[in-house]
Specification:
Elements (H helix, E strand, L loop, with lengths): L3 H14 L6 H14 L11 H16 L3 H20 L11 H17 L16
Helix pairs in contact: 1-5, 2-3, 2-4, 3-4, 4-5
Length: 131
């Protein structure tokens, strides 16, 4: 498995998200991590624990509507869930054996960006005064 590609995907994700202005960027990312939290629900192999994890991820995503810290935390929780599925469960993409490992490498990149407040990587400033 290529370990560089998931890191690049995480960086690309942050770059694409950087185009969305705040506060829409934060809210959009809360929705994205909510979706990620339910990714294994239809067959991840952890039984009833899939529902427990989805509930925890959904709570973090809901709180993430107003807090980048919760969004970053949800991505880190998803990283742990990815690792669990890589070693003991079913992969996130059924026909790609190492897909959960790739996700576990990508997600912390996104989480770090979120924990820094999800800033624009391009330095866009809306309504900035020109001197």
């Amino acid at each position: 498995m290529n370990y560089v590609a998931p890191v690049l995907i995480g960086i690309l994700y942050a770059m694409v998200m950087s185009v969305i202005p705040e506060p829409h960027r934060r809210r959009f990312n809360a929705v994205m991590v909510a979706g990620a939290g339910a990714a294994y629900l239809s067959g991840g192999g952890a039984g009833g624990w899939e529902f427990v994890f989805t509930a925890v991820a959904t709570y973090c995503a809901y709180r993430g509507l107003e807090s980048w810290t919760y969004i970053g935390t949800a991505w880190l929780l998803h990283t742990a869930w990815d690792l669990l599925h890589h070693f003991k469960g079913n992969p996130i993409i059924p026909f790609a054996h190492d897909s959960s490992l790739g996700c576990a490498i990508c997600d912390p990149v996104i989480a770090v960006w979120c924990l820094y407040g999800g800033p624009s990587l391009f330095g866009f400033r809306r309504n900035a005064a020109v001197s």
